[in-house]
User: What shape does this take?
Amino acid sequence: MIGRLNHVAIAVPDLPAAVALYGGTLGAEVSAPVDLPEHGVTTVFVVLPNTKIELLHPLGEGSPIAKFLERNPKGGIHHLCYEVEDIRAARDRLVAAGLRVLGDGEPKIGAHGKPVLFLHPADLAGTLTEIEQV
Assistant: This one.
């Protein structure tokens, strides 16, 4: 059911420093920052030949990334994102298998302008997992 690994998301306390690290020091292609107020984050994508890294930084009060950074002040891996062909069919199959979808269970538009859902980390070996419709 799951397809390609779309991205690995890393929460960062200092977005300009992370951009400089990936774009300058490591020489990767780095996107411009994009604010996603409905998700409470600013995102930057690092484009790699086989996947992407999403740098996440808190945006606004109540950002889930701010809470993550309180527990992990130096930052760290936040979630993995896998592609699916049909997000609602994938959701229904996962829920039927006993996995929990976070939020209200309805897809929201993510950083790529495509529908996304997040799955509870306790149901997936301790890993917050995002699925994104391709």
Notes: The radius of gyration is 15 Å.
